[in-house]
Design goal:
The complex is a heterodimer of chains A (145) and B (442). Chain A has 145 residues and is an alpha+beta fold. Chain A folds into 2 domains: 60 residues, NADH-quinone oxidoreductase subunit E (Arc Repressor Mutant, subunit A, Orthogonal Bundle), CATH 1.10.10.1590; 69 residues, 3-Layer(aba) Sandwich (Glutaredoxin), CATH 3.40.30.10. Chain A contains 7 helices and 4 strands; from the N terminus they run ααααβααβββα. Chain A has a 4-stranded mixed sheet with strand order 2-1-3-4, with helices on one face. The longest helix of chain A is centred in the first third of the chain and has 12 residues. The two termini of chain A are 28 Å apart. The mean pLDDT of chain A is 90. Chain B has 442 residues and is an alpha/beta fold. In chain B, strands 2-1-5-3-4 form a 5-stranded mixed sheet, with helices on one face. Chain B folds into 4 domains: 88 residues, Ubiquitin-like (UB roll) (Roll); 82 residues, Alpha-Beta Plaits (2-Layer Sandwich), CATH 3.30.70; 60 residues, Phosphorylase Kinase, domain 1 (2-Layer Sandwich), CATH 3.30.200.210; 159 residues, no CATH class. Chain B is built from 12 helices and 20 strands. The chains are: A alpha+beta (145), B alpha/beta (442). Chains A and B meet through helix 4 of A and strand 8 of B.
């Protein structure tokens, strides 16, 4: 497993953006996670080589951020925002409903603001934004899946 | 330059760290993350002191000394600060000192006795982390006892540059660890056990063997190679058993090994617990043998200068040709502490002008009627007169047991021509010292 051709081209252009190779760690971790759904051992090795950093440093960084996944999961992810606007508009009830009804097939996590406060409460399903969420909307979408 | 610490005048140099000045003058300053050979990191905040003219307490490991600096380490205010820091360090720390192997030499324990809060404010459950994790290289990790000072991480990243250890996770879930399937493996790995100020990293070889307050320490020198790293020999004698050596610890020497030892040297204490248990010959028998014409002696280059000198006097008196050969091992040395010359005092042999030519020795050996071996590894298990400090000797002809270096004090010259003394442990050896034996012979 390594980066796809499209991603390799992306990395080449990212290289010029930062004065130090070290700064590439986070963008590369994102690329890896986007490509495979999680960050595998081989990707950490590849990123360590690309950034000239020790393996442990990359592993340390990846484990620091909860949004990076180090294990492969069969479940799809639903991220529910719990920051102010969404919280005031009832995100807690939405999360509770999801956990009670869908945790068998989906991994439900609470996250901080994703910049869609205009459409609060919001959540993402496999990275796709869903705004002004209601319980009915969720049922419709998740049953359709 | 002069500064005032707790109203005592202290002499120091421009540009020195305040914590170094305090440590060098034996002024107690609690600290976890600072280590004189790893440098400052400033993460533990334990070394807070009050400085006249500064609004807030400052960390001593990040303060450079200035002319007329006035420092206070023992005010009520600073004790409160230390108490709060310790409370934070101990939020998730298990109170298991009675079963913890570090008890007695634990910094957390020591400081808590001085500044502790004793009554917990905590109402939520403690965070649980990994227990007894085998990191490899004889190192065991208990993540709950860790105070995250990162000394071990800085050792593997700055000194050995092997980068096995790192912080995993964040916040109250942060822990020291290795990456999955990447164990700690470098020839200096066990230094992290000694660097760890608390009971998080313990040595698989030493843990649960002995409580540290039952141990005595002798200032000695490692005999594993010609580097001559300074060590403490930790030993004791319990009821009904003879003296036993439990471990080697590094003894700080800035010129040679700083605070570090290689794993080979650290574990070489085991040899010292071996004793020669075969038959010991009579001195009178050797006296009779000394009457022959062609005599050769081979002396170990790991003996101290004092021992070498008395061997030399003995051989000169009895007209014995004396040789010494180095213990060369091309695969042992590295670019840091380990050297290819695996004897402790080869420079000393050269200083006394003892013959070290292999060819001449072999020539003399072939023609000799009597060969005396003074603890040299080359002639172990050969039928001749042996002076030995270890067990594995084939018992033929004459054998004399002699005390090993834990029972000797003497002088060694290391590979960089540094002359240093080592001291004997306080218990008397059951077998005589080499010098005593030679006195009996003359």
């Amino acid at each position: 497993m390594s980066f796809t051709q499209a991603n390799i081209i992306k990395i080449a252009s990212l290289m010029h953006r930062y004065p130090q190779k070290k700064a590439l760690v986070l963008p590369l971790l994102w690329l890896a996670q986007k490509q495979e759904g999680f960050i595998s051992d081989e990707f950490i090795n590849t990123i360590a080589e690309l950034t000239h950093m020790p393996y442990m440093h990359i592993y340390s960084v990846a484990s620091f951020y909860t949004m990076f996944k180090l294990q492969k999961s069969d479940k799809k992810t639903i991220e529910v925002c719990r920051t102010l606007s969404c919280e005031l508009n009832g995100s807690e009830a939405i999360k509770k409903y999801l956990v009670e009804n869908y945790s068998k097939n989906y991994e439900i996590v609470a996250v901080e603001c994703m910049g869609a406060c205009g459409g609060s409460p919001m959540c993402t399903i496999e990275g796709k934004y869903m705004e002004n969420v209601t319980i009915e909307m969720l049922d419709e979408v998740l049953h359709g899946n | 330059m002069k500064i005032m610490i707790d109203e005592t005048q202290i002499e120091c140099k421009e540009g020195e760290l305040l914590i170094d000045v305090m440590l060098n003058n034996n002024i107690s300053i609690p600290h976890f993350c600072y280590h004189q050979d790893l440098g400052a990191d400033g993460n533990c905040r334990m070394c807070m002191v009050e400085i006249k003219g500064e609004k807030r307490p400052q960390v001593a490991c990040d303060t450079l000394v200035k002319e007329n600096l006035e420092v206070f380490t023992k005010s009520k205010n600073i004790n409160n600060v230390k108490r709060s820091i310790l409370e934070l360090e101990l939020l998730s720390h298990p109170v298991d000192c009675p079963i913890c192997d570090q008890a007695g030499e634990c910094k957390l324990q020591d400081y808590y006795m001085d500044y502790g809060l004793y009554e917990s404010h905590l109402t939520t459950p403690k965070t649980h982390k990994g227990k007894h994790i085998d990191l490899g290289s004889h190192v065991m990790l208990d993540q709950e006892r860790c105070v995250l000072c990162t000394r071990c991480i800085r050792f593997t990243s700055n000194i050995t540059k092997t980068h096995e250890l790192g912080i995993i996770g964040r916040g109250d879930n942060a822990k020291v660890g290795i990456a999955p399937n990447k164990p700690l493996s470098n020839p200096y790995a066990m230094n992290v056990v000694e660097l760890c100020p608390v009971g998080a990293l313990t040595s698989k070889d030493f843990r649960f063997k002995q409580r540290v307050w039952f141990l005595d320490s002798a200032k000695s020198i490692c005999h594993g190679c010609s580097r001559g790293c300074n060590i403490f020999i930790d030993y004791n004698e319990t009821k009904y058993t003879t003296e036993k050596i439990h471990r080697f610890r590094s003894r700080r020497n800035n010129e040679i090994n700083q605070s570090f030892l290689c794993d080979y040297g650290r574990l070489s204490y085991k040899e010292l617990n071996e004793k020669y248990e075969g038959k010991i010959s009579d001195v009178q028998d050797l006296k009779k043998l000394l009457k022959v014409e062609k005599k050769v002696a081979l002396v170990s280059p790991s003996l101290s200068l004092e021992q070498l000198k008395s061997v030399q006097n003995f051989t000169q008196k009895h007209k014995i040709a004396l040789f010494s050969l180095p213990y060369l091992d091309e695969n042992f040395g590295d670019d840091w502490l380990k050297t290819n010359e695996r004897s402790a005092n080869f420079k000393g042999v050269q200083e006394l002008f003892i013959n070290t030519l292999q060819k001449e020795f072999e020539e003399a050996f072939k023609n000799a009627e009597l060969i005396i071996n003074f603890d040299h590894q080359l002639l172990k298990n050969k039928p001749l007169v042996q002076f030995t400090s270890t067990q594995n000797v084939n018992q033929e002809n004459l054998v004399f047991a002699i005390a090993n270096f834990a029972h000797e004090s003497g002088t060694l010259i290391n590979c960089d021509e540094i002359r240093q003394r080592f001291e004997a442990s306080k218990y008397k050896s059951q077998v005589p010292r080499l010098v005593e034996l030679l006195e009996q012979l003359s």
